[in-house]
Amino acid sequence: MQKILLICIGLYFHLSFTQSLKVPLDTVVITKHKTVIKGVAMNYTAETGMQPVWDDDGVVIASLFYTYYSRDNVKNRNQRPVIISFNGGPGSASVWMHMAYTGPRILKVDDEGFPVQPYGYKSNPYSILDVADIVFVNPVNTAYSRRVANKEGELPNREQFFGINEDIAYLSSWINTFISRKNRWESPKYLIGESYGGTRVMGLSLALQKNQWMYLNGVILVSPADYKTLRSDGPVASALNLPYYTATAWYHKMLPEDLQSKDLLEILPEAEDFAINSLIPVLAKGGFVSDAEKEAVSAKVAYYSGLSQKTVLQHNLNIPNSFFWKELLRETRGLTVGRLDSRYLGIDKNEAGSRPDYNPELSSWEHSFTPAINHYLKNELNFKTDLKYHVFGPVHPWNKENDNTRDNLRSAMAQNPYLKVLNQSGYYDGATTYFSAKYNLSQIDPSGKMKNRFTFKGYRSGHMMYLRNEDLIQSNEDLRAFIKKASPNGKAAKY
């Protein structure tokens, strides 16, 4: 009996050891596919796998999950653009743009981007795969990407990965490896980053030049988070919110009739002008502003925001966006509006309060994206693992110190005459507002000598503007136009 027990115990420990969840270090699965983009049938290859990150001694410290799409039957691969795609967070997987924007498959959602059941995905007839190859990259602790333990079973220090500059450093090295493995050094190269991914690709633009000797043709900022503005608490950051308030109030029909009767794009320039030329100066005066000026400006803030003048004055003209989401429809409908996309509505436990209980748009997106990506990777791309797919992964605390990414982009542009920038933002995005994005573009190059290399595009949706079908079509067309614009076409890189 004792012998049997010992055998059972030994078998238990053997099974426990053999069944430990391992991170794939360096593996790839290749599948072949067909699609139709803009009415043209084409074949493409999907490569899904894990590629290592090494330390300075050549030891594997992490492995990143990626998906690489390349169009088949391309004669001159070296002339074909390659786009390296990141989402944000920090801590977000690349699922969002992968399954809803540029990739060959997109979610089954309604025309406004709301989830429908049964869950699933379909072909994307607007994907940019017709003009560029795309790789979707997942930083450490997102999707299936993980740190890798050494021979002693110890994980590398998290501080190596989870910070603005740490993130940029190891990702630039990873990109170098990827480009070398795929033999794409001669190809025009573009980075696209959404939300915090905007901060990431701004920093990567210079890191790739300085440390990997890799020069880009374009950087694409999708609803970018520029924390030089977003983390500040001054008059500028506050005033930049107002045009977003105008857009959201217009969408929900909460503006005065003379504004409500106009088209959105007619009234936004008014709100922008007022924010820059009137609101910022008054907010800068603080408690020393005259009563008359405060009265006049507060009336205008109410006029452009859909809030009452009393509410504006109670906040000293400085309306927190979290309060706006709670307040705008409080009296008329008893609902909240979404943070990342204010077209989405929520129901709080209490109508009272200063901020919503939850973000209805994020709940909606997790609703539709999570089943789709898990099914798609395993069943269509044939990538199988027992690792959990982290839509949002554990990356905090995040080192926010020494954020020089905005100036890094300026420096990269100055040193590389080829490099151009495209910004895409939704008017109803309350987290990284469109007017903050416009402002941030203007601050990258204070000299104005490179302003003709910046392009801004706005859309009638939110943070993920591509979820709305009309904007999916237009935003992909804007990408195509930008890729063409940023292609050198034999022109030398010089001033």
Can you offer a commentary on this structure?
The protein is of the alpha/beta class and 495 residues long. The protein folds into two domains: 18-229 and 367-485, Rossmann fold; 233-358, no CATH class. Helices cover 38% and strands 17% of the residues. The protein is built from 16 helices and 14 strands. The protein has helices at residues 2-18, 95-100, 164-181, 196-212, 227-230, 235-239, 242-251, 257-260, 264-285, 291-305, 309-314, 321-327, 360-379, 405-415, 434-444, 469-485, and strands at 27-37, 40-54, 60-71, 82-86, 105-107, 121-123, 133-137, 146-147, 189-194, 218-222, 336-337, 345-346, 420-426, 454-459. Strands 1, 2, 3, 4, 7, 8, 9, 10, 13 and 14 form a ten-stranded mixed β-sheet that branches. A two-stranded antiparallel ribbon has the order 5-6. Strand 2 (40-54) and strand 3 (60-71) form a beta hairpin. Helix 3 (164-181) crosses helix 4, helix 4 (196-212) packs across helix 14 and helix 9 (264-285) runs antiparallel to helix 10. The longest helix is centred in the middle third of the chain and has 22 residues, at 264-285. The chain is globular.
